[in-house]
Design brief:
Elements: E1 6-10, E2 16-20, E3 32-34, H1 41-46, E4 69-74, H2 92-100, E5 114-116, H3 125-144, E6 155-160, H4 163-173, E7 180-186, H5 194-202, E8 205-208, E9 211-214, H6 216-219, H7 223-226, E10 235-236, E11 244-245, H8 257-276, E12 284-289, E13 296-300, E14 303-307, H9 323-326, E15 338-342, H10 352-363, E16 377-380, E17 384-386, E18 391-397, E19 411-417, E20 422-426, E21 434-439, E22 445-453, E23 463-470
Parallel strand pairs: 1-5, 1-6, 6-7, 7-12, 12-15, 17-23
Antiparallel strand pairs: 2-3, 2-4, 8-9, 10-11, 13-14, 16-18, 18-21, 19-20, 19-22, 22-23
Helix pairs in contact: 3-4
Length: 476
Protein backbone atom coordinates (compact mmCIF):
# COMPACT_ATOMS: atom_id res chain seq x y z
CA UNK A 1 0.00 0.00 0.00
CA UNK A 2 1.08 3.55 -0.68
CA UNK A 3 -0.19 7.06 -0.09
CA UNK A 4 -1.92 6.72 -3.47
CA UNK A 5 -4.73 4.83 -1.77
CA UNK A 6 -7.70 6.56 -0.13
CA UNK A 7 -7.51 6.34 3.66
CA UNK A 8 -10.79 6.90 5.50
CA UNK A 9 -10.79 7.48 9.27
CA UNK A 10 -13.91 6.70 11.29
CA UNK A 11 -14.25 7.72 14.96
CA UNK A 12 -16.14 5.91 17.70
CA UNK A 13 -19.52 6.65 19.23
CA UNK A 14 -19.81 10.34 20.28
CA UNK A 15 -16.53 10.99 18.41
CA UNK A 16 -18.07 13.21 15.69
CA UNK A 17 -19.18 16.77 16.28
CA UNK A 18 -22.81 17.44 15.38
CA UNK A 19 -24.57 20.61 14.25
CA UNK A 20 -27.93 21.74 13.01
CA UNK A 21 -28.67 23.88 9.99
CA UNK A 22 -29.88 27.30 11.09
CA UNK A 23 -33.26 28.79 10.26
CA UNK A 24 -31.34 31.51 8.41
CA UNK A 25 -29.73 28.90 6.17
CA UNK A 26 -26.39 28.90 8.00
CA UNK A 27 -24.53 25.58 7.80
CA UNK A 28 -24.46 23.03 10.60
CA UNK A 29 -20.77 23.84 11.20
CA UNK A 30 -21.85 27.27 12.47
CA UNK A 31 -24.49 25.85 14.81
CA UNK A 32 -22.74 23.08 16.71
CA UNK A 33 -24.79 21.20 19.30
CA UNK A 34 -22.27 18.45 20.15
CA UNK A 35 -18.73 19.75 20.20
CA UNK A 36 -16.11 20.82 22.75
CA UNK A 37 -16.47 24.42 23.84
CA UNK A 38 -14.22 25.94 26.46
CA UNK A 39 -16.11 26.51 29.69
CA UNK A 40 -19.38 25.16 28.33
CA UNK A 41 -19.11 21.39 28.62
CA UNK A 42 -21.63 21.11 31.43
CA UNK A 43 -24.13 23.26 29.54
CA UNK A 44 -23.57 21.03 26.52
CA UNK A 45 -24.54 18.03 28.63
CA UNK A 46 -27.40 19.46 30.66
CA UNK A 47 -28.68 22.65 29.02
CA UNK A 48 -32.25 22.91 27.83
CA UNK A 49 -31.19 22.55 24.19
CA UNK A 50 -28.69 19.76 24.86
CA UNK A 51 -28.84 17.00 22.30
CA UNK A 52 -28.60 14.55 25.19
CA UNK A 53 -32.09 15.61 26.26
CA UNK A 54 -33.56 14.75 22.86
CA UNK A 55 -34.45 11.05 22.73
CA UNK A 56 -34.86 9.66 19.22
CA UNK A 57 -38.37 8.68 18.07
CA UNK A 58 -39.53 5.22 19.02
CA UNK A 59 -39.17 2.76 16.16
CA UNK A 60 -36.61 4.86 14.27
CA UNK A 61 -34.85 1.69 13.10
CA UNK A 62 -32.30 2.47 10.39
CA UNK A 63 -33.77 5.86 9.58
CA UNK A 64 -33.02 9.49 10.40
CA UNK A 65 -35.27 11.45 12.80
CA UNK A 66 -35.54 14.41 10.45
CA UNK A 67 -34.45 16.81 13.17
CA UNK A 68 -31.92 18.64 11.01
CA UNK A 69 -28.89 17.31 12.91
CA UNK A 70 -25.82 16.77 10.69
CA UNK A 71 -22.34 15.40 11.37
CA UNK A 72 -19.63 18.02 10.97
CA UNK A 73 -16.12 16.85 11.89
CA UNK A 74 -14.09 14.46 14.02
CA UNK A 75 -13.62 15.45 17.66
CA UNK A 76 -10.35 17.32 18.27
CA UNK A 77 -7.82 15.70 20.55
CA UNK A 78 -7.54 18.36 23.24
CA UNK A 79 -11.01 17.99 24.74
CA UNK A 80 -13.00 15.34 26.51
CA UNK A 81 -16.77 15.22 26.94
CA UNK A 82 -18.29 12.73 29.37
CA UNK A 83 -21.37 10.86 28.29
CA UNK A 84 -22.46 7.44 27.12
CA UNK A 85 -19.95 4.70 26.45
CA UNK A 86 -16.60 6.24 27.45
CA UNK A 87 -15.01 9.71 27.63
CA UNK A 88 -14.12 11.07 24.21
CA UNK A 89 -10.49 11.45 23.31
CA UNK A 90 -10.15 13.17 19.95
CA UNK A 91 -8.50 12.26 16.67
CA UNK A 92 -5.99 15.03 15.89
CA UNK A 93 -3.01 12.82 16.75
CA UNK A 94 -4.14 10.01 14.44
CA UNK A 95 -4.91 12.37 11.54
CA UNK A 96 -1.59 14.18 11.95
CA UNK A 97 0.25 10.86 11.86
CA UNK A 98 -1.44 9.93 8.58
CA UNK A 99 -0.71 13.34 7.06
CA UNK A 100 2.96 12.93 7.97
CA UNK A 101 2.92 9.73 5.90
CA UNK A 102 1.82 11.72 2.83
CA UNK A 103 -1.94 11.31 2.91
CA UNK A 104 -3.75 14.57 2.21
CA UNK A 105 -7.22 16.00 2.57
CA UNK A 106 -8.78 17.38 -0.59
CA UNK A 107 -7.42 20.92 -1.01
CA UNK A 108 -6.23 23.09 -3.87
CA UNK A 109 -8.25 21.18 -6.42
CA UNK A 110 -6.44 17.91 -5.72
CA UNK A 111 -8.55 14.86 -4.85
CA UNK A 112 -8.22 13.66 -1.26
CA UNK A 113 -6.22 10.65 -0.20
CA UNK A 114 -7.39 11.15 3.41
CA UNK A 115 -11.02 11.54 4.49
CA UNK A 116 -12.02 11.99 8.14
CA UNK A 117 -15.55 10.58 8.04
CA UNK A 118 -17.82 12.20 10.62
CA UNK A 119 -21.18 10.54 11.17
CA UNK A 120 -24.27 10.94 13.34
CA UNK A 121 -23.34 8.47 16.06
CA UNK A 122 -26.89 8.41 17.45
CA UNK A 123 -28.14 6.47 14.45
CA UNK A 124 -27.98 2.89 13.27
CA UNK A 125 -24.67 1.61 11.95
CA UNK A 126 -26.59 0.34 8.93
CA UNK A 127 -27.70 3.90 8.15
CA UNK A 128 -24.17 5.23 8.54
CA UNK A 129 -22.74 2.39 6.46
CA UNK A 130 -24.97 3.47 3.57
CA UNK A 131 -23.93 7.08 4.08
CA UNK A 132 -20.27 6.00 4.07
CA UNK A 133 -20.81 4.47 0.65
CA UNK A 134 -22.19 7.78 -0.66
CA UNK A 135 -19.05 9.61 0.48
CA UNK A 136 -16.28 7.09 -0.21
CA UNK A 137 -17.10 5.87 -3.71
CA UNK A 138 -17.33 9.31 -5.43
CA UNK A 139 -14.08 10.32 -3.70
CA UNK A 140 -12.39 7.15 -4.92
CA UNK A 141 -13.61 7.77 -8.49
CA UNK A 142 -12.10 11.28 -8.41
CA UNK A 143 -8.80 9.90 -7.15
CA UNK A 144 -8.64 7.16 -9.77
CA UNK A 145 -9.50 9.65 -12.51
CA UNK A 146 -6.03 11.19 -12.08
CA UNK A 147 -4.63 8.05 -13.68
CA UNK A 148 -1.06 6.90 -13.32
CA UNK A 149 -0.26 5.64 -9.83
CA UNK A 150 -3.80 6.50 -8.73
CA UNK A 151 -5.57 4.42 -11.38
CA UNK A 152 -5.65 1.36 -9.13
CA UNK A 153 -6.28 3.18 -5.84
CA UNK A 154 -8.41 1.40 -3.28
CA UNK A 155 -9.85 2.28 0.10
CA UNK A 156 -8.17 1.64 3.44
CA UNK A 157 -10.28 2.14 6.56
CA UNK A 158 -8.74 3.13 9.89
CA UNK A 159 -11.51 2.89 12.47
CA UNK A 160 -11.70 3.50 16.19
CA UNK A 161 -14.30 1.71 18.31
CA UNK A 162 -17.82 1.75 16.81
CA UNK A 163 -16.45 3.27 13.59
CA UNK A 164 -15.25 -0.23 12.75
CA UNK A 165 -18.84 -1.51 12.81
CA UNK A 166 -19.91 1.22 10.37
CA UNK A 167 -17.06 0.37 7.99
CA UNK A 168 -17.70 -3.37 8.27
CA UNK A 169 -21.36 -2.87 7.31
CA UNK A 170 -20.35 -0.86 4.26
CA UNK A 171 -17.71 -3.40 3.21
CA UNK A 172 -19.81 -6.52 3.69
CA UNK A 173 -23.37 -5.35 3.10
CA UNK A 174 -23.15 -2.28 0.82
CA UNK A 175 -20.71 -3.53 -1.84
CA UNK A 176 -17.64 -1.94 -0.32
CA UNK A 177 -15.57 -5.12 -0.56
CA UNK A 178 -15.04 -4.45 -4.27
CA UNK A 179 -13.09 -1.23 -3.60
CA UNK A 180 -11.59 -1.89 -0.17
CA UNK A 181 -7.96 -2.91 0.20
CA UNK A 182 -8.05 -3.48 3.95
CA UNK A 183 -9.78 -2.61 7.21
CA UNK A 184 -7.84 -1.57 10.32
CA UNK A 185 -9.83 -1.45 13.54
CA UNK A 186 -8.64 0.05 16.83
CA UNK A 187 -10.59 -1.25 19.81
CA UNK A 188 -13.66 -2.06 17.71
CA UNK A 189 -16.20 -4.26 19.53
CA UNK A 190 -16.47 -6.85 16.76
CA UNK A 191 -18.79 -8.91 18.98
CA UNK A 192 -20.01 -6.08 21.17
CA UNK A 193 -19.13 -4.92 24.67
CA UNK A 194 -20.63 -5.65 28.07
CA UNK A 195 -20.54 -1.98 29.04
CA UNK A 196 -23.39 -1.32 26.60
CA UNK A 197 -25.52 -3.96 28.32
CA UNK A 198 -24.88 -2.46 31.75
CA UNK A 199 -25.63 1.06 30.56
CA UNK A 200 -28.87 0.17 28.78
CA UNK A 201 -30.31 -1.92 31.62
CA UNK A 202 -29.12 0.16 34.59
CA UNK A 203 -29.31 3.55 32.90
CA UNK A 204 -26.57 6.07 32.22
CA UNK A 205 -25.99 8.49 35.06
CA UNK A 206 -22.87 10.56 35.58
CA UNK A 207 -22.22 12.25 38.88
CA UNK A 208 -19.51 14.56 40.13
CA UNK A 209 -19.87 15.97 43.58
CA UNK A 210 -23.35 17.54 43.94
CA UNK A 211 -23.92 17.57 40.18
CA UNK A 212 -25.43 14.77 38.13
CA UNK A 213 -26.42 13.95 34.57
CA UNK A 214 -29.08 11.38 33.66
CA UNK A 215 -28.70 10.22 30.07
CA UNK A 216 -30.89 7.13 30.43
CA UNK A 217 -33.84 8.10 28.20
CA UNK A 218 -31.50 9.38 25.50
CA UNK A 219 -29.24 6.31 25.55
CA UNK A 220 -32.16 3.86 25.41
CA UNK A 221 -33.38 5.51 22.20
CA UNK A 222 -30.11 5.03 20.28
CA UNK A 223 -29.96 2.19 17.72
CA UNK A 224 -26.17 2.61 17.76
CA UNK A 225 -25.81 1.86 21.47
CA UNK A 226 -27.98 -1.25 21.11
CA UNK A 227 -25.69 -2.38 18.27
CA UNK A 228 -22.81 -2.24 20.76
CA UNK A 229 -24.52 -4.89 22.91
CA UNK A 230 -22.47 -8.07 23.35
CA UNK A 231 -23.29 -10.70 20.75
CA UNK A 232 -21.41 -13.31 22.77
CA UNK A 233 -23.02 -15.20 25.67
CA UNK A 234 -22.23 -13.15 28.76
CA UNK A 235 -25.32 -13.27 31.01
CA UNK A 236 -24.97 -15.71 33.91
CA UNK A 237 -27.67 -18.38 33.51
CA UNK A 238 -27.25 -21.84 35.10
CA UNK A 239 -29.70 -23.30 32.58
CA UNK A 240 -27.80 -22.08 29.51
CA UNK A 241 -25.08 -23.95 27.68
CA UNK A 242 -21.78 -23.17 29.37
CA UNK A 243 -23.58 -21.27 32.11
CA UNK A 244 -24.02 -18.05 30.09
CA UNK A 245 -26.84 -16.84 27.84
CA UNK A 246 -27.02 -14.31 25.00
CA UNK A 247 -29.13 -11.16 25.14
CA UNK A 248 -31.77 -12.71 22.88
CA UNK A 249 -32.06 -15.81 25.09
CA UNK A 250 -33.23 -13.99 28.22
CA UNK A 251 -35.56 -11.11 28.97
CA UNK A 252 -33.57 -7.92 29.51
CA UNK A 253 -35.30 -5.54 31.92
CA UNK A 254 -35.91 -1.86 31.13
CA UNK A 255 -35.07 -1.99 27.41
CA UNK A 256 -36.86 -2.56 24.11
CA UNK A 257 -36.97 -6.24 23.19
CA UNK A 258 -37.39 -5.30 19.52
CA UNK A 259 -34.27 -3.10 19.57
CA UNK A 260 -32.26 -5.88 21.26
CA UNK A 261 -33.36 -8.40 18.62
CA UNK A 262 -32.58 -5.98 15.80
CA UNK A 263 -29.13 -5.28 17.24
CA UNK A 264 -28.33 -8.97 17.39
CA UNK A 265 -29.53 -9.35 13.80
CA UNK A 266 -27.04 -6.62 12.88
CA UNK A 267 -24.20 -8.71 14.33
CA UNK A 268 -25.31 -12.04 12.90
CA UNK A 269 -25.84 -10.55 9.44
CA UNK A 270 -22.33 -9.12 9.52
CA UNK A 271 -20.83 -12.38 10.73
CA UNK A 272 -22.62 -14.37 8.03
CA UNK A 273 -21.39 -12.02 5.30
CA UNK A 274 -17.82 -12.14 6.59
CA UNK A 275 -17.86 -15.92 6.88
CA UNK A 276 -19.03 -16.17 3.25
CA UNK A 277 -16.25 -13.90 1.95
CA UNK A 278 -12.68 -15.21 2.40
CA UNK A 279 -11.26 -11.72 1.80
CA UNK A 280 -12.83 -10.48 5.01
CA UNK A 281 -9.89 -12.00 6.87
CA UNK A 282 -7.63 -9.30 5.44
CA UNK A 283 -8.75 -7.14 8.37
CA UNK A 284 -6.26 -6.01 10.99
CA UNK A 285 -7.50 -5.93 14.58
CA UNK A 286 -5.60 -3.71 17.00
CA UNK A 287 -6.95 -4.44 20.46
CA UNK A 288 -6.29 -2.97 23.87
CA UNK A 289 -5.38 -5.48 26.57
CA UNK A 290 -4.51 -5.97 30.23
CA UNK A 291 -7.02 -3.40 31.58
CA UNK A 292 -9.80 -4.25 34.09
CA UNK A 293 -12.87 -4.71 31.86
CA UNK A 294 -16.48 -5.74 32.42
CA UNK A 295 -16.98 -9.05 30.58
CA UNK A 296 -19.98 -10.91 32.04
CA UNK A 297 -23.09 -9.88 33.98
CA UNK A 298 -25.66 -11.17 36.40
CA UNK A 299 -29.23 -9.85 36.27
CA UNK A 300 -31.30 -9.64 39.43
CA UNK A 301 -34.13 -7.34 40.46
CA UNK A 302 -34.07 -5.46 37.16
CA UNK A 303 -30.41 -4.55 37.70
CA UNK A 304 -27.18 -5.70 36.05
CA UNK A 305 -24.03 -6.45 38.04
CA UNK A 306 -20.85 -6.73 35.97
CA UNK A 307 -17.93 -9.08 36.46
CA UNK A 308 -14.49 -9.04 34.94
CA UNK A 309 -14.32 -12.60 33.71
CA UNK A 310 -16.00 -15.88 32.93
CA UNK A 311 -15.78 -17.33 36.40
CA UNK A 312 -12.09 -17.56 37.29
CA UNK A 313 -11.00 -16.74 33.72
CA UNK A 314 -10.29 -13.01 33.35
CA UNK A 315 -9.44 -12.17 29.74
CA UNK A 316 -9.28 -8.45 30.53
CA UNK A 317 -9.55 -6.00 27.60
CA UNK A 318 -9.09 -2.26 27.09
CA UNK A 319 -11.21 -1.08 30.02
CA UNK A 320 -14.31 -0.79 27.81
CA UNK A 321 -14.26 -3.61 25.25
CA UNK A 322 -13.51 -7.08 26.67
CA UNK A 323 -11.11 -9.23 24.71
CA UNK A 324 -13.94 -11.63 23.87
CA UNK A 325 -15.82 -8.76 22.21
CA UNK A 326 -12.76 -7.31 20.49
CA UNK A 327 -11.99 -10.46 18.48
CA UNK A 328 -14.38 -11.36 15.68
CA UNK A 329 -14.72 -13.52 12.61
CA UNK A 330 -15.08 -16.66 14.74
CA UNK A 331 -11.44 -16.39 15.77
CA UNK A 332 -9.99 -17.66 19.03
CA UNK A 333 -8.60 -15.16 21.52
CA UNK A 334 -5.04 -16.00 20.43
CA UNK A 335 -5.78 -15.22 16.78
CA UNK A 336 -2.91 -13.95 14.67
CA UNK A 337 -5.24 -11.33 13.17
CA UNK A 338 -5.00 -9.27 16.35
CA UNK A 339 -2.23 -6.97 17.52
CA UNK A 340 -2.41 -6.52 21.28
CA UNK A 341 -1.42 -3.23 22.90
CA UNK A 342 -1.68 -2.62 26.66
CA UNK A 343 -3.78 0.55 26.61
CA UNK A 344 -7.13 2.06 27.57
CA UNK A 345 -9.94 2.14 24.98
CA UNK A 346 -10.21 5.94 24.74
CA UNK A 347 -6.46 6.35 24.12
CA UNK A 348 -5.79 3.64 21.52
CA UNK A 349 -5.91 6.09 18.60
CA UNK A 350 -3.29 8.27 20.33
CA UNK A 351 -0.96 5.47 21.47
CA UNK A 352 2.39 5.64 19.68
CA UNK A 353 2.71 1.86 19.41
CA UNK A 354 -0.70 1.77 17.72
CA UNK A 355 0.28 4.61 15.36
CA UNK A 356 3.46 2.70 14.47
CA UNK A 357 1.39 -0.39 13.75
CA UNK A 358 -1.00 1.54 11.50
CA UNK A 359 1.93 3.04 9.62
CA UNK A 360 3.50 -0.37 9.14
CA UNK A 361 0.27 -1.80 7.75
CA UNK A 362 -0.16 1.13 5.36
CA UNK A 363 3.43 1.15 4.13
CA UNK A 364 3.79 -2.65 3.99
CA UNK A 365 7.39 -2.45 5.12
CA UNK A 366 9.05 -2.88 8.50
CA UNK A 367 9.28 0.32 10.54
CA UNK A 368 10.86 1.15 13.86
CA UNK A 369 9.47 -1.48 16.15
CA UNK A 370 8.96 -0.59 19.78
CA UNK A 371 9.95 -3.50 21.96
CA UNK A 372 7.15 -4.60 24.20
CA UNK A 373 8.45 -4.49 27.72
CA UNK A 374 7.41 -7.10 30.19
CA UNK A 375 5.30 -5.51 32.94
CA UNK A 376 1.71 -4.54 32.15
CA UNK A 377 -0.25 -1.85 33.98
CA UNK A 378 -3.94 -2.11 34.80
CA UNK A 379 -5.30 1.36 35.47
CA UNK A 380 -8.48 2.66 37.10
CA UNK A 381 -9.02 6.41 36.60
CA UNK A 382 -12.41 8.14 37.09
CA UNK A 383 -14.03 9.86 34.10
CA UNK A 384 -15.17 12.87 36.14
CA UNK A 385 -14.11 14.54 39.38
CA UNK A 386 -14.64 17.95 40.93
CA UNK A 387 -11.70 20.15 41.81
CA UNK A 388 -12.66 19.92 45.47
CA UNK A 389 -12.72 16.13 45.72
CA UNK A 390 -9.45 15.71 43.83
CA UNK A 391 -8.32 12.91 41.56
CA UNK A 392 -7.62 9.39 42.79
CA UNK A 393 -5.74 6.90 40.61
CA UNK A 394 -5.34 3.18 41.30
CA UNK A 395 -3.28 0.67 39.35
CA UNK A 396 -1.93 -2.86 39.45
CA UNK A 397 1.29 -4.17 37.96
CA UNK A 398 1.31 -7.72 36.67
CA UNK A 399 4.26 -10.04 37.28
CA UNK A 400 6.74 -9.82 34.41
CA UNK A 401 7.24 -12.54 31.81
CA UNK A 402 9.51 -14.43 34.19
CA UNK A 403 6.85 -14.33 36.90
CA UNK A 404 8.82 -11.90 39.06
CA UNK A 405 6.78 -9.94 41.62
CA UNK A 406 6.62 -6.30 40.43
CA UNK A 407 6.55 -4.90 43.97
CA UNK A 408 9.19 -2.25 44.45
CA UNK A 409 9.34 -1.21 40.79
CA UNK A 410 9.65 2.53 40.37
CA UNK A 411 6.47 3.97 38.84
CA UNK A 412 5.51 7.57 38.08
CA UNK A 413 1.96 8.84 37.66
CA UNK A 414 1.87 12.01 35.55
CA UNK A 415 -1.11 14.33 35.05
CA UNK A 416 -0.94 16.56 31.98
CA UNK A 417 -3.17 19.37 30.74
CA UNK A 418 -4.72 19.31 27.27
CA UNK A 419 -1.76 21.28 25.90
CA UNK A 420 0.73 18.74 27.23
CA UNK A 421 1.94 20.70 30.28
CA UNK A 422 2.77 18.56 33.28
CA UNK A 423 0.42 19.55 36.10
CA UNK A 424 1.46 17.05 38.74
CA UNK A 425 3.46 13.88 39.28
CA UNK A 426 3.57 11.23 41.96
CA UNK A 427 5.83 8.27 42.63
CA UNK A 428 3.66 5.88 44.65
CA UNK A 429 5.00 2.79 46.31
CA UNK A 430 4.02 -0.53 44.75
CA UNK A 431 3.07 -3.15 47.33
CA UNK A 432 1.89 -6.60 46.28
CA UNK A 433 1.69 -5.23 42.75
CA UNK A 434 -0.75 -2.45 43.72
CA UNK A 435 -0.28 1.30 43.84
CA UNK A 436 -2.39 4.40 44.38
CA UNK A 437 -1.89 8.13 43.88
CA UNK A 438 -4.03 11.14 44.69
CA UNK A 439 -3.87 14.67 43.33
CA UNK A 440 -5.43 17.72 44.96
CA UNK A 441 -5.63 21.23 43.58
CA UNK A 442 -5.74 20.29 39.91
CA UNK A 443 -7.13 23.05 37.69
CA UNK A 444 -10.45 22.46 35.95
CA UNK A 445 -10.18 21.02 32.46
CA UNK A 446 -9.37 17.94 30.45
CA UNK A 447 -6.34 16.06 31.68
CA UNK A 448 -4.50 12.89 30.73
CA UNK A 449 -3.13 10.53 33.37
CA UNK A 450 -0.16 8.34 32.41
CA UNK A 451 1.19 5.52 34.55
CA UNK A 452 4.68 4.48 33.48
CA UNK A 453 8.06 3.34 34.70
CA UNK A 454 10.18 6.07 36.26
CA UNK A 455 13.34 5.42 34.21
CA UNK A 456 13.81 5.39 30.42
CA UNK A 457 14.99 1.79 30.69
CA UNK A 458 11.97 0.76 32.75
CA UNK A 459 10.17 -2.45 31.84
CA UNK A 460 6.75 -1.00 32.77
CA UNK A 461 4.48 -0.38 29.78
CA UNK A 462 2.82 3.05 30.00
CA UNK A 463 -0.97 3.34 30.03
CA UNK A 464 -2.89 6.61 29.54
CA UNK A 465 -6.41 7.53 30.67
CA UNK A 466 -8.41 10.72 30.31
CA UNK A 467 -10.34 12.56 33.01
CA UNK A 468 -12.34 15.77 33.31
CA UNK A 469 -11.86 17.99 36.39
CA UNK A 470 -14.92 20.17 36.86
CA UNK A 471 -14.79 23.50 38.76
CA UNK A 472 -16.63 23.48 42.07
CA UNK A 473 -20.07 25.02 42.09
CA UNK A 474 -20.16 25.67 38.34
CA UNK A 475 -23.00 24.46 36.13
CA UNK A 476 -22.79 25.47 32.46
Amino acid sequence: MTSNDLVVVLPGITGSTLGIRGDDGSPASENLIWAPSAGAVWKLLTGGSSILRQALPEGIGDGHPGDGVEPVALMPDVHVIPGIWTPIRGYDVLLASLEQQGYRRGTGGKPATLIPFAYDWRLSNRYNGERLKAVVEPALEQLRAQGGAYADAEVVFVCHSMGGLVARWYVERCGGAEVTRTLITLGTPWRGATDALEQLVNGVRKGIGPLSIDLTAFSRSLPSLFQLLPEFACIADPGAEGGYAKTTEVSLPNVSTAMVADAMAFHTDLQAAEAARPGSRAAHLVVGVRQPTATTVQIAGGHVTTYRGFGADDDLGDGTVPLTGAVGLGESLDTNLAVRVPEQHANLQCNQTVLDQVQEILSARPLRRRELTDTSVRAVVPDLVTAQEGLGVAFDLEPDVAGVDPSGKAVTVTVRAADGRVLATAAPSVVDGHGEASFAGLPPGTHTVTIAGSAPSSTVRPVTSTTLVWPDGVVG
